[in-house]
């Protein structure tokens, strides 16, 4: 099989370098370059359209990092093999925590790149079905963090990530909601979303919801704004949550994402 390759790096010279290397190894390691992107957003769109077998992914990118993007790609029905490309070896551990296939240090050598591509070809050939492709290389992602640290009345408590139903930003704090109790933490929703993208989905600019806790959606009592982009208010929809009666509004921007989860 000829692997389909997609390049993600925010620096154009770095993308050009990888394309040159791919061209250099084309004879010994046939492949098809199907696309490239400089941001996580355009990468997600391009990867969804081209469905590559391999993503050559930079670790350090502005906004959504390569680690966070890899976690999102790991939720695809048939996730691509992630080969990280970085100038720093300090991120290797985090890369393999999200089950990266390989980790190449810049400047990348042609022989190392060819070796990574060949290994993907071998594993794809051994797969017995589409659902089992790269079995053992990109398994279901498990976050490195297992708990949130919460300070409560002079005590330090550990609240399991698996127990959290939603997180909501309120003033300077974030409210962490479990089935039985609310807690306050001082982490930002953005950092939590980036680290635990495989567990939580953003439903509104001020709220993340655990994917397992989403029971459905229903129309809400009031129109919901579109998060300040000048669009008109939309018909209100809200998330139905398991184990709690509270409903959370869904913004216009996040509505397609949430709707896809409950289809």
Write structural notes for this entry.
This protein has helices at 12-24, 40-50, 66-73, 92-97, 110-126, 189-195, 255-262, and strands at 4-8, 32-37, 54-58, 81-86, 102-105, 147-152, 155-160, 164-170, 173-178, 182-185, 200-204, 207-210, 214-219, 237-241, 247-249. The protein folds into two domains: 4-132, Rossmann fold (3-Layer(aba) Sandwich), CATH 3.40.50.2300; 147-262, OB fold (Dihydrolipoamide Acetyltransferase, E2P) (Beta Barrel), CATH 2.40.50.1020. A hairpin with a 3-residue loop joins strand 9 (173-178) and strand 10 (182-185). Residues 128-143 and 228-233 have low confidence and may be disordered. Helix content is 27%, strand content 30%.
Task: Describe the structure in brief.
This protein is α/β, with parallel strands linked by helices and 263 residues long. The chain has helices at residues 12-24, 40-50, 66-73, 92-97, 110-126, 189-195, 255-262, and strands at residues 4-8, 32-37, 54-58, 81-86, 102-105, 147-152, 155-160, 164-170, 173-178, 182-185, 200-204, 207-210, 214-219, 237-241, 247-249.
Topology (elements, then pairings):
Layout: E1 4-8, H1 12-24, E2 32-37, H2 40-50, E3 54-58, H3 66-73, E4 81-86, H4 92-97, E5 102-105, H5 110-126, E6 147-152, E7 155-160, E8 164-170, E9 173-178, E10 182-185, H6 189-195, E11 200-204, E12 207-210, E13 214-219, E14 237-241, E15 247-249, H7 255-262
Parallel strand pairs: 1-2, 1-3, 3-4, 4-5
Antiparallel strand pairs: 6-7, 8-9, 8-12, 9-10, 11-12, 13-14, 14-15
């Amino acid at each position: 099989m000829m692997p389909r390759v997609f390049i993600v790096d925010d620096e154009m010279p770095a993308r050009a370098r990888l394309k040159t290397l791919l061209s250099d190894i084309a004879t010994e390691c046939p492949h098809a370059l199907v696309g490239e992107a400089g941001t996580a957003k355009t990468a997600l769109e391009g990867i969804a359209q081209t469905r590559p077998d391999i993503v050559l992914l930079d670790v350090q990118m502005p906004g959504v990092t390569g680690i966070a993007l890899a976690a999102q790609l790991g939720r695809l029905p048939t996730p691509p093999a992630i080969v990280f490309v970085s100038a720093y070896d300090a991120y290797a551990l985090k890369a393999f925590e999200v089950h990266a296939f390989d980790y190449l240090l810049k400047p990348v050598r042609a022989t190392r790149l060819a070796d990574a591509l060949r290994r993907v070809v071998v594993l794809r050939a051994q797969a017995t079905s589409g659902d089992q492709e790269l079995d053992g290389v990109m398994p279901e992602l498990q976050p490195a963090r297992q708990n949130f640290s919460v300070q409560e009345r002079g005590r330090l408590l550990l609240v399991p990530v698996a127990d959290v139903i939603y997180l909501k930003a309120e003033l300077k704090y974030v409210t962490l909601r479990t089935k039985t109790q609310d807690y306050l933490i001082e982490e930002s929703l953005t950092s939590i979303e980036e680290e635990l993208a495989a567990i939580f989905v953003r439903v509104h600019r001020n709220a993340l919801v655990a994917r397992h806790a989403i029971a459905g959606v229903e129309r809400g009592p009031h129109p919901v704004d579109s998060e300040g982009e000048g669009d008109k208010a939309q018909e209100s929809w809200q998330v139905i949550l398991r184990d709690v009666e509270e409903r959370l509004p869904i913004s216009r921007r996040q509505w397609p994402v949430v709707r896809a989860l409950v289809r």
